[in-house]
Amino acid sequence: QVQLVESGGGLVQPGGSLRLSCAVSGRTNSAYAMAWFRQAPGKFREFVAALNWSGRNKYYADAVRGRFSISRGNGENTVQLQMNSLKPEDAAVYYCAAGIDISRSGSSYLYWGQGTQVTVSS
After folding, report:
1. Confidence class of residue 78 from pLDDT cuts 50, 70 and 90?
2. At 27, is the secondary structure helix, strand, or coil?
3. Do 35 and 50 contact (CB within 8 A), yes or no?
4. DSSP state, 31?
5. Phi and psi dihedrals of 6, rounded to 5?
6. Region 81-89: what's the mean pLDDT?
7. How many CB atoms lie within 10 A of CB 62?
8. CA-based Rg of the chain, rounded to a whole angstrom?
9. What does DSSP say about strands 116-120 and 10-12: parallel, antiparallel, or unpaired?
């Protein structure tokens, strides 16, 4: 069984930074493509960022490009999301996902974390 565990959420003021981390554990036979999605209250889940198994190919949502950066962590199946210049509209539950191929579509990912809350408020 594969599990994803997120960490790093919290409360930050507008303009501040946070770093989210996600680790895949369990039956991991190969490197996964990994992604972050978010869902704010009353809104649909939306794509944030993704990288492929090697970490060399990356996708970003237009709303976060230039402010957020996705990267591999120290482990093969770990991923981090560095979020800078945070805005109130970035507040949401952020979910980590893992799959075979990099994609902007949530349906492409096989495994999901439980989510971590990011609150942006003064």
Report:
1. confident
2. coil
3. yes
4. P
5. -95, 155
6. 97
7. 6
8. 13
9. parallel
